[in-house]
Write a structure and sequence with these properties.
single chain; about 280 residues; alpha/beta; 7-stranded mixed β-sheet; two-stranded antiparallel ribbon; 9 strands; globular
Length: about 280
């Protein structure tokens, strides 16, 4: 049985965020490409291993994982968004890789094969659980004894300029969002390392380590950044909540473009980000 504990997130990623992400045609994946390399190294993924990827999305990290484990290994990608998995299947078909399987599943409740995986990993796909302790307890069961966990999650909004620049513009015009719990599911839900250590320990993981990384986000042109900031990320969520009229949206896009233009340089724009790489293992 595959029940859904994260019904709100399932609806959001199937009806809003997933289709928008796919419509951006790789924009988000290009921005965070540097995180792929950081995560591959930190996870110590090896040839022949069995890997479970949580929140595989459109498969941008699934492909390098499959290449790393080789023909003798395997990767199972799980995601709650049918829209993103459809795009992932197209991507994987183009690669010719045959060691990848995909499943539409809520990782908080899905019954993965017990004790199968050497590595459970995720690139920004685990911050959306309604109950992180329950989710990671379920994920723990999918790992073999002494199996490894390694995932990337975002730091705070203030530590990620690519989000903060447009968010400050939107906040100035539309005001703050409605109050919500500080650890509600969302991109920055795991920005407190002590919180992450707490729920991973409660879920049964041991040897938890959290490594702060500051990769550069490869920004696009100011105009593209403004357009995309109104579609995805914290600024887009605030716009969706406040729902300004078209004139207001045009003003936001124009001022966000101007704000990004201040950071533009010859050859592109790089904006500092803060990412946490979290590692742990299942006990013996």
């Amino acid at each position: 049985m595959n029940t859904v504990a994260n019904a709100a997130q399932q609806e959001y990623w199937n009806t809003i965020a997933g289709p928008r992400w796919v419509g951006l045609e790789g924009f988000v994946e290009r921005r965070v490409r540097a995180v792929n390399d950081l995560l591959l190294v930190r996870s110590a993924v090896r040839a022949g291993e069995r890997v479970l990827e949580i929140g595989c999305g459109t498969g941008a990290f699934t492909v390098p994982l499959a290449e790393a484990v080789g023909e003798r290994g395997e990767v199972l990608g799980a995601d709650i968004s049918a829209a993103m998995l459809t795009e992932a299947r197209k991507r994987l078909a183009e690669t010719g890789l045959r060691n990848i399987s995909l499943v539409e599943a809520d990782a908080q409740t899905h019954q993965f094969e017990p004790g199968r995986f050497d590595l459970v990993t995720s690139r920004f796909g685990v911050m959306f659980f309604a109950d992180p302790t329950a989710a990671f307890a379920n994920i723990l069961g999918a790992a073999r004894r002494e199996g490894r966990l390694c995932f990337a999650c975002w730091g705070s909004l203030d530590d990620n300029r690519h989000w903060l620049i447009p968010y400050e513009v939107v906040l100035r015009h539309l005001g703050p969002p409605a109050p919500k719990p500080p650890r509600a599911p969302g991109p920055t839900a795991f920005a407190d390392p002590d919180y992450v250590r707490s729920f991973l320990g409660a879920a049964g993981f041991e040897a938890v380590e959290i490594h702060r990384e500051t990769p550069d986000i490869l920004a696009s042109t100011p105009r593209e950044e403004a357009e995309h900031a109104c579609i995805m990320g914290p600024s887009a969520r605030l716009i969706d909540e406040k729902n300004p009229d078209e004139a207001g949206r045009q003003t936001l896009r124009r001022e966000i473009e101007e704000a990004f233009a201040a950071y533009a340089k010859d050859g592109g724009t790089q904006l500092p980000a803060t990412v946490f790489l979290v590692t742990a293992r299942r006990p013996r």
